[in-house]
Specification:
The structure holds 2 protein chains of 2 kinds. Chain A has 3 helices and no strands. Chain A is mainly α.
Amino acid sequence: MVDFGIPIGAGIAFGLGALGTGIAQSRIGAAGAGTIAEKPEMFGLMIILVAIPETLVILGFVVASMIMIMLV
Amino acid sequence: MEYAYVNARIKAMKSRLLDRSFLEQLINKPDIDSLIAELEKTTYREELDKAGVLYTGIHRIEVAIRKDLVKTFRTVLNLIRGGETESYLTIILNRWDVQNIKTILRGKKIQENPSEILECLIPAGELDEAALTELVKQPDVKAVIDLLATWGIIYSRPLTLNFKEFSETGDLLVLEYALDTFYYQDAISRLKSGESDDARILKNILVTEIDINNIKTVLRSIRDRIDIEEAKRYFVKGSPDFDIERLTSMMKAGTIDGALKQLEHTPYQFITTIPQEYIVAEKISAFEKELERYLVKKAVSLFIGDPLSIAIPIAYIWAKYTEVTNIRVIARCKIIEVPEKELREALISV
């Protein structure tokens, strides 16, 4: 019988990471747009700040991958 | 309300406000022309250039900083158009409506030239430049009130109600206090309907302002030996700590010193540390200045409050207003050659 628990666990690990990243990036993106509107020279810094929450989804992806690899 | 965008933008605007070291440079300038040259290095450059076509010297600075202030406030208001937040911010900007109406009434009472009155106005509230221009064209105080009533401006209500007393006594203070009282009561009642954090922050600042005005009224009334019952008319309901009973008790002390003693163990106890000579000479202006500084500091300190609330726009409006006030003080002191020590004392540092 196929064990669905492992892929579901991997999905949750990746999905929640992506959700967290989305929420964080929406806030940071809005604030970044506001800052760039007034100070265009901050563009480079804002790109970095918007990218930082990507680590959440990357970690989620790594955890999901590890779960899947363990399954195999 | 999406505060992330708006407040980040306002914080970026805040970074362009003049810092203490720049104000020091302005103080050290020998004359108005070098002051203008220094200001041209800042965000005031655009308005200074425009004003330079029609005005010179201090008038150029006055016009430029006033226009810049109005433009900045309009920018902030446009950023938060719509919803509850806009109405909250309008409450703050309505202060300038009240101030403008009072200035026009004063000007009309002494029959000042309309263009002179117009120069003293700051069209940052709901009454724009066109409306104010029309108001200053009116021949007298009654005509100004009538025009406000025709336009359906709410501030015509307290003025109409108290006009009879004004026409009998000729005391403009009656209308000014009625206007102030109406503004604060209207603002607090508009905030009562909202129980959000934004409403709480704004109410806190408004109540502090009311308390400070009440304390000033108490001190002035004691100095001018005004009857307690007469003074009571001018109190506005503020915080529970400074209710009418407490203010009356301060009045009953009969002396400035006695009234100040009752401020101990309150947030305003700092004014009890003002040198004794001011108390003896009953120099109320020293107390008023300290109280105003406290209010400005409290409002500007909202910058370190909740970054996703109305605290940031409120703090910015106060910080910008303080900056403009400081530039005006420096410019005027340069014109009449006030000693540097007195100039520094007149500035509001935040």
